[in-house]
TrEMBL record:
This is IS605 OrfB family transposase. Residues 1-45 form the Transposase putative helix-turn-helix domain. GO terms for biological process: DNA recombination; transposition. Residues 164-278 form the Probable transposase IS891/IS1136/IS1341 domain. In the C-terminal section; belongs to the transposase 35 family. In the N-terminal section; belongs to the transposase 2 family. Residues 290-357 form the Cas12f1-like TNB domain. It comes from the Bacteria. Keywords: DNA recombination, DNA-binding, Metal-binding, Transposition, Zinc. One of its GO terms (molecular function) is DNA binding. It comes from Bartonella taylorii 8TBB. InterPro entries: Cas12f1-like_TNB, RNA-guided_DNA_endo/Transpos, Transposase, Transposase_put_HTH.
Length: 398
């Protein structure tokens, strides 16, 4: 299987400068190739005798021009521009297959990164060797033994990280667990379990909102292009990174705990993009990070042999009485408790929804899975043992 480990780099000023230049070369090559692709594709539509653009031809074209027109690129590893063009080819393949949007130009300072192939890197304990730079310190050692496939070096705020993709035969597993739980996601509590437990969210954005506003206001008052504006921009980026790290750390802890305690977990297929359009709830919803919560649950379930059951987004988990099965027609969001008119059972809205999700997981089977959203099948079963899994390490701030 393939796993990934993201490790913080320990850099001096010279090494930071190299990383920035290599990322700039990758960005330039990607944008150059995207512009060429668009021009060549328009020419092909007018004359089908011309070749269609592809990343292999664009790499050869770029290499023929690099030494004369882009000689400054010779200062960094050749992988930086080459892998960027390959990634553009993958982006177009995903676009034409309907899996992603049309590729856009990369912007300086936004997700700066470059990728190295396995023949361009060496790993030795707590350091990694990068072409035309030398040995660079790692904040921790690689956790896995196996063949390194690639390394992507990226920047987040003022810190640089390397993500190592490793092919390994090591399979981690937990003891068999037949326990089933339903999880109802919400704003006040991140998740309410069918056991009656509630898991709170840390809500770091809300906690640091006043500081964010203050830094944003100070940034807006600085002259564009000035060193003081650059300093304020770095402070704001570091605060956003801190918020992201707090949220991710919390989600990793609770998802790992849930995977260890339960063998099957059921949650709803929430339409997060649609929910975020609600201007009254969008900030609180984004702060809870439902998408990341589900993503972590799914890859950890695949890694440890657990099952995730995803209920159809139209399944009325809150409106159905878990005791008698009677369904009420209207249940506004401001109604947190209700009484079943058929059997008289008093319900807490969130706990009732979680119990219904648990019952759905109990009754569901692999053969029950069908068309999502059709109304014919209420569940989608996410099976374990996916080919690619991700492991994100949590780092201490310098």
């Amino acid at each position: 299987m393939i796993v990934a480990h993201k490790i913080a780099l320990d850099l001096n000023n010279k090494q930071r400068s190299y990383m920035a230049r290599a990322s700039g070369c990758a960005r330039f090559a990607y944008n150059w190739a995207l512009k060429e692709w668009q021009q060549q594709y328009e020419a092909w539509k007018k004359d089908n005798n011309l070749p269609k653009p592809n990343d292999y031809a664009l790499r050869r074209q770029f290499n023929s021009l690099k030494r004369e027109q882009f000689s400054w690129m010779m200062e960094v590893t050749k992988n930086a521009p080459q892998m960027a063009i390959i990634q553009l080819g993958v982006a177009f393949k995903n676009f034409f297959s309907g899996r992603s949007r049309y590729p856009t130009f990369r912007k300086k300072g936004v997700h700066d990164r470059f990728t190295l192939t396995n023949d361009q890197i060496q790993l030795q304990g707590s350091k990694i060797r990068i072409p035309k730079l030398g040995w660079v310190g790692l904040r921790e050692q690689l956790r896995f033994q196996g063949k390194i496939l690639s390394a992507t070096i990226s920047r987040k705020a003022d810190r640089w990280f390397v993500s190592l993709s490793v092919e390994t035969d090591h399979q981690e597993s937990l003891s068999e667990n037949q326990a089933i739980v339903g999880l109802d996601l919400g704003i006040n509590a991140l998740a309410t379990l069918s056991t009656g437990e509630t898991i709170g969210g840390v809500k770091p954005y809300k906690a640091l909102l006043n500081r964010l506003r203050r830094l944003s206001r100070r940034l807006s008052r600085k002259q564009k292009g000035s060193s003081n504006r650059h300093k304020e921009k770095q402070k704001l980026a570091k605060l956003h990174a801190r918020i992201s790290n707090i949220r991710t750390d919390h989600l990793h802890k609770i998802t790992t705990d849930l995977i260890q305690r339960f063998g099957t977990l059921c949650l709803e297929d929430l339409h997060v993009k649609g929910l975020l359009k609600n201007q009254h709830l969008s900030r609180a919803l984004a702060d809870q990070s439902f998408f990341e919560f589900r993503r972590q649950l799914e890859y950890k379930a695949a890694r440890y042999g657990r099952q995730i059951v995803i209920a159809d987004r139209w399944y009325a988990s809150s409106k159905i009485c878990h005791y008698c099965g009677c369904k009420i027609e209207q249940l506004p969001l401001n109604i947190r408790e209700w009484k079943c008119s058929h059997c008289g059972t008093h319900h807490d809205r969130d706990i009732n929804a979680a119990i219904n999700l648990k019952n759905l997981a109990v009754s569901s089977t692999v053969s029950a899975c069908g068309e999502e959203g059709s109304g014919q099948c209420p569940v989608t079963l996410v099976k374990p043992a996916s080919k690619k899994q991700e492991i994100n390490s949590i780092f201490n701030q310098k």
